[in-house]
Amino acid sequence: MQLVRGLHNLRPLHRGCVATIGNFDGVHRGHQAILARLRERAVELGVPSCVVIFEPQPREFFAPDTAPARLTRLRDKLELLAGEGVDLVLCLAFNQRLRKLSAAEFVDTILVGGLGVQHLEVGDDFRFGCDRLGDFDFLQQAGVAQGFTVEAAQTVEIGGVRVSSTKVRDALAAADFVLAERLLGRPFQIAGRVLHGQKLARQLGTPTANVQLKRRRVPLTGVYLVSTEIDGKTWPGVANIGVRPTVSGDGSAHLEIHILDFTGDLYGRRLTVAFHQKLRDEQRFASLEALKTAINADVAAARAHWRQ
């Protein structure tokens, strides 16, 4: 899969494709259905498939403090899109210039002038352009005028629930990891690189891998049963996501994982952590001794769970 950052980096070889547009946060089963149809149309027409995404995501641009927590960072999203057989990702910077494009300018500049799109797959509720005035009907009319076809992606439902990134976030907020996995088609995971931390957990007798989150908000907070794959082996563990209220911190969220019975050096390595069950909310303890007692109880609960 090829990543093109910015319209100015498109080349003639990128022109003539089938495309879809969206955030694709989580690349859940609804997204997977769109991408499967995109692949089919690409094969039928003998052209590459292209996914157009935005960084930051539009809601993060307009309201960064209240935008939904991301299910996947850009790097993880790109890996998932590649796994779905996408040929090309066009990543556009969502800025004032892009925000001000009218629906007609978006079609002329990006879809026709940039990509030379032959076919477009979008949801029938898709909105785009300045003030979100462009919609599915507008795209159909533009396609007739400019020589590309438009098809509405079918809604995917599981157990009567429409699959969406919002529903995944709701499932995670409710600690319903079974539902989240059904909606995603895989366990919910967070990936990141292990950094040096305060080493406090080591002093408390439970060394942890401090995983870099690189995101403004995360969709989980609390203590969880997790697993992570290291050198082809899956290791069970317990993880905390939060601001570490008992110890002084920078106020941002951290992911710390205690991997049961693992003794190797993980600094600098990129880990993917899968979440399975919530043990408790993050809380502030009166002392480090009380925190140590709670951590020991979390580890004991994790051991009991993984022995089942």
Task: Provide structural commentary.
By secondary structure, this protein is an alpha/beta fold. The protein folds into 2 domains: 2-158, HUPs (Rossmann fold); 187-307, Elongation Factor Tu (Ef-tu), domain 3 (Beta Barrel), CATH 2.40.30. It contains 10 helices and 14 strands. The protein has helices at 29-45, 58-62, 74-83, 96-99, 103-112, 136-146, 165-173, 177-184, 200-203, 288-307, and strands at residues 2-5, 17-21, 49-55, 88-93, 117-123, 149-153, 157-158, 161-162, 189-195, 209-211, 222-230, 233-242, 254-259, 270-280. The strands form 3 sheets. Strands 1-4-3-2-5-6 form a 6-stranded parallel β-sheet, sandwiched between helices. Helix 5 (103-112) crosses helix 6 (136-146) and helix 7 packs antiparallel against helix 8 (177-184). It is elongated, with a radius of gyration of 22 Å. The two termini are 41 Å apart. The model has no long low-confidence stretch (mean pLDDT 89).
Give structural attributes.
308 residues; Rossmann fold; Elongation Factor Tu (Ef-tu), domain 3; 6-stranded parallel beta sheet; 6-stranded antiparallel beta barrel; 10 helices; 14 strands; 32% helix; elongated
Number of helices: 10
Overall number of domains: 2
Task: Return the CATH topology of the largest domain.
Answer: Rossmann fold
Tell me roughly what share of residues is in helical segments. Answer: 25-40%
Query: What is the first-to-last residue Cα distance?
Result: 41 Å
List the helices and strands and how they pair.
Blueprint: E1 2-5, E2 17-21, H1 29-45, E3 49-55, H2 58-62, H3 74-83, E4 88-93, H4 96-99, H5 103-112, E5 117-123, H6 136-146, E6 149-153, E7 157-158, E8 161-162, H7 165-173, H8 177-184, E9 189-195, H9 200-203, E10 209-211, E11 222-230, E12 233-242, E13 254-259, E14 270-280, H10 288-307
Parallel strand pairs: 1-4, 2-3, 2-5, 3-4, 5-6
Antiparallel strand pairs: 7-8, 9-10, 9-14, 10-13, 11-12, 11-14, 12-13
Helix pairs in contact: 5-6, 7-8
